[in-house]
Amino acid sequence: MNPKILILGPPGAGKGTQSDRLATAFEVEHVTTGDALRANKGMDISEMDTEYDTPGEYMDDGELVPDAVVDAMVEEALSGADGFVLDGYPRNEDQAEALQGMTDLDVVLVLDAPEEELVDRLTGRRVCDDCGANFHVEFSPPKAAGVCDQCGGDLIQREDDTEETVRERLSVYAEDTEPVLALYADHDGYVEIDGDQSPDDVWDEVRQAVRDHT
Ligand code: AMP
Asked: What total of structural domains would you count in the chain?
């Protein structure tokens, strides 16, 4: 059995980067609700009796998409996975309860970094419109401004990476998601990792934590 890994932490802590590395190194699926929702921003969810009719309207405001939409996506993704790294979910206590009914977990990693570092990382982030590769205008700039090193695609700023929306996302994290950490604190595989280090240094600790608990 491949490991079942949950990675928690605020937006900008490096969950996506470390999850990509985990998926490759441990041959597990990267299940990420943010990417799944971005691919379905225009999906009609009006039948679920939600405030807005599409996920994109919540996302562009920095708010959480309703649980029913996200729970169903995760349940489907996990049911077909032989091992996974789950990133971006659960984001509140109800989602954590839903997850408990879907699967058990081998490792629960928590990445964190100081708030102003998170804001700098997110507002400077640029993402390739074609292949999804991540850059940063200051910390990891592309060779040519606005052009993806990997595929030549256009680099764009995510609509929710503007400073105002980033601050809202961080306050939603503090209010809704941070309380979830306490639910996992007694898990045998719970490991907190300092995300305020280089991606390679974080990776050394992430990889070791997974090895220690599988
Ligand atoms: P992320 O890429 O993880 O930062 O997610 C981007 C946006 O997608 C969030 O600000 C939310 O609007 C939405 N989203 C992602 N995951 C969830 C989730 N588990 N529950 C509700 N909304 C989510």
From this structure: 1
